[in-house]
Amino acid sequence: MRVSIIIPTLDRPLLLEAAIRSVLLQTRPVDEIIVVDDGSTRENLEANRELAALSPSIRFESLGGRRGVSAARNRGLEMATGDAVVFLDDDDLLLPGMVEAGVGVLEKDGTVDVSACLAEVLFTPAGDGPCLPVSLLFDHRLMETHPLRFGSYGTPLPRALLEERPVSALLRHSIPVHSFVARRESIGDVRFPEGIRQGEDRQFWVTLARKGCRFRLTEAVHVLIRRHGQNTTLSLVQGARDLQSFYDWVLGEPGVEDPLDRAFVRIHVAILSLRRGDGMWLQQLGWMVAHPVSSARELRQYAERFLGGRRNLLRYYLRE
């Protein structure tokens, strides 16, 4: 099975190099690494082009202007020749066994369309310099003498939920885009929605789940989410505006069928409305009052996930 890695990038050549090197260190070599530049400055564009010298498997493409991460991923998907694809952001990393584990699932069971794995967060220093040497990422013993630390990513993703109710799992858990290895033929003509700033990757995977794609979870950490000084950050209000587009899509046609999923989405729309300061939350409250059983269950589970996430952060900051 041929494997294509698609990496959109914008003005982060140092982080991009680390991402590419994490792919080159895979225990199962990939067939092509497609880097799609989304309008970097001239200096960074040239630096990105020079990274193609790291391996003959690297293919470089420029969009010629800033069109967004979805457009970059879609261009990469059009260029990909692999039987399986992985979407990797330019500031995140694959641990060495990610491709081998994910492709192994697809090769072993031809009925599985998408293989997923778990993630950890890697906290790195702020600033414009290199965050850490690549060798540090793949030798945890060096972490003992280095100030950087790992932390858990969100609340645990239940395997049964993803495999039996993938739409529900994808709505409830923010799963990193590079946690998935997907069959190219299963993706078909599905593309990332262009024009929205948040939730575009979740919409892509939910679309695949809605059309019947089967997901399989490997309960092992194979990817890293990097938190660093160059992360794209948004205010809570701006994030609430951007995420609304995703939830509008979810509630539109064909809509969510499971009553618990509907309750979950309504609760989140109400929370986003409160952050924005508009009156949409009143409409969602009316719906929740009309569906008390589903709403009460989802409110309880939402609280448990929220508190679980806060516990994870507390453990990270208190750990010495």
Assign the CATH architecture of the largest domain.
Alpha-Beta Complex
CATH topology label of the largest domain: Spore Coat Polysaccharide Biosynthesis Protein SpsA, Chain A
Give the proportion of residues in helices: 40-55%
Distance between the termini: 43 Å
Question: What oligomeric state best describes the polypeptide chains here?
Answer: single chain
CATH homologous group name of the largest domain: Spore Coat Polysaccharide Biosynthesis Protein SpsA, Chain A
Largest sheet geometry: 9 strands, mixed
Q: State the shape.
A: globular
CATH class assignment of the largest domain: Alpha Beta
Number of domains: 2
Structural class: alpha/beta
Written as H for each helix and E for each strand, in order along the chain, the element string is EHEHEHEEHEHEHHEHHEHHHH
Low-confidence stretches: 127-136, 139-146
Radius of gyration: 20 Å
The number of E-state strands comes to 9
pLDDT averaged residue by residue: 86
Helical segment tally? 13
Question: How much of the sequence is in beta strands?
Answer: 15-25%
What are the defining features of this structure?
single chain; 320 residues; alpha/beta; Spore Coat Polysaccharide Biosynthesis Protein SpsA, Chain A; nine-stranded mixed β-sheet; 13 helices; 9 strands; 46% helix; globular
